[in-house]
Amino acid sequence: MAELVLVTLDGQVRDAGTPLLHVDDLAVVRGDGVFETLLVRDGRACKQALHLDRLEESARALGLPWPGRGLWTRAVEAAAREWGRDREGWMRLVLSRGREGGGGPTAFVTVGAVAERVLRARQDGVSVLTLPRGYSVDLSASAPWQLLSAKTLSYATNMAALRHAQSQGADDVVFTSSEGRVLEGPRSTVIVARGKTLITPPPAQGILPGTTQKALFEVAPDKGYACEYAPLFPADLIAAEGVWLVSSVTLAARVHTLDGLVLPAAPAAEDVASLVALAVETVGSD
């Protein structure tokens, strides 16, 4: 079985070991593009509809040419089939503006194996540092060109934050605003539990709308949980009855340590893990 699958939007399975991008592709020289990352299970892409919705919204925010949903659906399904039903994987959808010299957009789908780091985070949870992002919760509304609600290829700051956390002995990061409000992780959405209520910061604060969080909020009420969007501060994370970083591939990673403080066990830990798994496998699968 291939360790990496590559499918272009014409539906063709390509040799992932053969170069695809030109040296002047704007994804490379400018980070001028968008992407989505999905979980692949049982030969299909989870939450496919939600991810395609967000990919299109991100492309619109950047003014990127949109190849059409049908082409993406065909490529996603071909890539999932090629990966197979017997192993879990991550799937990445990439769309760039194309070559600097002109021409059409660059678009492709890749699938690879889920990292050991991800499996450990699911099972054991994560330690987290809070780090300032350096802007206000009002920035998204006053400066839409900052693209805070789009999932762009410009991830250098996010990756630098993760490297900094790891150099300090932590696994992950929760960003805070200049007002000290909780925002999101570099590749996740923050969820806290207060009894039978699940809370996440409002996307209007300049947060990328999370597909996993959205799916979780769709299934949780049927299992007896209320769901809310509300501002949070680091103190709220400490006082909560559980904190999670949720994302499409890692699913629910419980935060067991925050800025060096060991958090108490979360009574809802099993519920949240099972609800996220249910959400990922059932919501937006068309």
The general outline is globular
Strand content: 25-35%
Average pLDDT, rounded to a whole number, is 94
Q: How much is the radius of gyration in Å?
A: 19 Å
- Count of alpha/pi helices: 9
Low-pLDDT sequence parts: none
Largest sheet geometry:
8 strands, mixed
Number of strands: 14
Structural class: alpha+beta
Order of helices and strands: EEHEEHHEEHEHHEEEHEHEEEH
Helix content percent band: 25-40%
Q: Gap between N and C termini, in Å?
A: 27 Å
List its salient traits.
286 residues, eight-stranded mixed beta sheet, six-stranded antiparallel beta sheet, 9 helices, 31% helix, globular
Structure write-up:
The protein is α+β, with helices and mostly antiparallel strands and 286 residues long. It has nine helices and 14 strands. Strands 7, 8, 9, 10, 11, 12, 13 and 14 form an eight-stranded mixed sheet that branches. A hairpin with a 2-residue loop joins strand 13 and strand 14. The longest helix is centred in the first third of the chain and has 15 residues, at 48-62. It is globular.
Write the layout of secondary structure elements.
Elements: E1 4-8, E2 13-14, H1 26-29, E3 33-41, E4 44-45, H2 48-62, H3 69-83, E5 89-96, E6 106-113, H4 116-124, E7 126-132, H5 139-142, H6 156-167, E8 172-176, E9 189-194, E10 197-200, H7 211-219, E11 226-229, H8 234-239, E12 243-247, E13 251-258, E14 261-262, H9 269-282
Parallel strand pairs: 7-8, 7-13, 10-11
Antiparallel strand pairs: 1-2, 1-6, 3-4, 3-5, 5-6, 9-10, 9-12, 12-13, 13-14
